[in-house]
């Protein structure tokens, strides 16, 4: 039996889509440390105070990095729960807090 590699495209698409979809309101619960991160057994996401963000996929040893259009005014980590289950969200507000980028893990 040939074991096919797992298709990580849906996960990557979901993470990128969540990051691109703007305008989510997130309450600020923490001060502004230099970076915020969330992680599970397969993925870690980090948003830095300068607007850089990173996604690390452990099983396939992928490292994706990019940058927001400008440095965020605030970066926060918040736990939550939706219809799928519990998550940890890392979000950044920028453009005068008119936009919010969020990744849920």
Folded structure, characterized:
The chain is mainly beta. It has a domain at 41-105. 11% of the residues lie in helices and 44% in strands. It has 1 helix and 7 strands. It has one helix spanning 9-20; strands spanning 35-39, 43-48, 52-57, 62-67, 74-81, 86-94, 99-104. Strands 1-2-3-4 form a 4-stranded antiparallel β-sheet, with no helix packed on it. Strands 5-6-7 form a 3-stranded antiparallel β-sheet. The longest helix is centred in the first third of the chain and has 12 residues, at 9-20. The chain starts with 8 loop residues before the first helix and ends with a strand. Residues 17-33 have low confidence and may be disordered.
The average pLDDT score comes to 77
Strand content: 35-45%
Strand order of the largest sheet: 1-2-3-4
What's the total count of β strands?
Answer: 7
Shape: globular
What string gives the helices and strands in order?
HEEEEEEE
- Name the helicity range: 10-25%
Q: Report the radius of gyration as a whole number of Å.
A: 14 Å
Q: How many strands, what sense, and barrel or not for the largest sheet?
A: 4 strands, antiparallel
- Poorly predicted runs are 17-33
């Amino acid at each position: 039996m040939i074991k096919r590699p797992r298709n990580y495209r849906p996960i990557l698409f979901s993470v990128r889509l969540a990051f691109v979809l703007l305008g989510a309101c997130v309450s600020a619960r923490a001060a502004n440390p230099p970076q915020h991160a969330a992680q599970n057994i397969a993925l870690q996401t980090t948003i830095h105070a300068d607007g850089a963000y990173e996604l690390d996929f452990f099983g396939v040893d992928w490292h994706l990095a990019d940058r927001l259009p400008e440095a965020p005014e605030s970066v926060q980590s918040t736990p939550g729960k939706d219809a799928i289950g519990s998550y940890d969200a890392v979000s950044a507000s920028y453009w005068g807090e008119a936009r919010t980028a969020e990744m849920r893990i």
